[in-house]
Amino acid sequence: MTTFLAFPDIHDRAEPLKKMRHIIADVDAVLLAGDMTNGKPDNLQRVLNIIEAMNENIFAVCGNMDSEAMNMRLARDGISVHRRHVMLDGLAILGCGGALPYYGKYVFSEDELAGFLNDSLQGVSDNTPKILICHQPPYDTKVDRVEDGTPVGSKAVREFIERVQPLICFSGHIHGATGIDSIGNTQLINPGPLWQTSQYAYAEVENGEVVTLEIRQGEKLEI
């Protein structure tokens, strides 16, 4: 069995993770689904240092508030899965960073996001079980709606999920769109920012199947 924790939208507020040291240390990998910072490159290393003290197996993509320089730093350290994949216990972990044009500078068009997603799939066979980390959620789901109910996700991400059917898509970006949904056989999850919701995503995968996918409640955090 392979276990994951996922944290989207840390936004420089990594201190709450210290209260989860035993939980973080016990999983096989920690997934960061973008917006680790609010645009300051030096803060990225501080976030990573906190997590690495508990678990060195980190895979991440940048969000719209991060930057290409941060992605390059993550790539240098073998952490970034943007436009690529890594293998873990027979699972292909695919990544797509950035978001549609919005706040921040790390933003892309639908065509660019489609290209990034296809790049991440290169060299992965159709029958390999896949996990997707994508800051931008897919269009028209529980995890892409803003307060008035308008869907603001990516149609390119949705098309990719419909076609490839990864086991899970971990996303973030829309802080209030917490929940679990599905597209075909793919389960979607966004727990929201830990510092805001006191929640995190937890998953267990065994023999190419999702055994557990939950939004779990951490202890109430004083921010």
Quick structural overview:
Helices cover 23% and strands 27% of the residues. By secondary structure, it is α/β, with parallel strands linked by helices.
Describe this structure in words.
The structure is a single chain. The chain has 223 residues and is of the alpha/beta class. Helix content is 23%, strand content 27%. It contains six helices and eleven strands. It has helices at residues 21-26, 41-52, 68-76, 110-120, 155-164, 194-197; strands at residues 2-7, 29-33, 58-61, 85-88, 91-96, 130-134, 168-170, 179-183, 186-190, 199-206, 209-217. Helix 4 runs parallel beside helix 5 (155-164). The longest helix has 12 residues, at 41-52. The mean pLDDT is 95.
Structural features:
Purple Acid Phosphatase, chain A, domain 2; alpha/beta; 11 strands; 223 residues; 6 helices; globular
Number of helices: 6
Instruction: Give the SSE string.
Output: EHEHEHEEHEHEEEHEE
CATH class: Alpha Beta
Shape: globular
Average pLDDT taken over every residue: 95
- As for the number of domains, it is 1
CATH architecture: 4-Layer Sandwich
Strand count, sense and closure of the main sheet?
A: 6 strands, mixed
The overall strand count is 11
Radius of gyration: 15 Å
What are the segments in which pLDDT stays under 50 over at least 5 consecutive residues? none
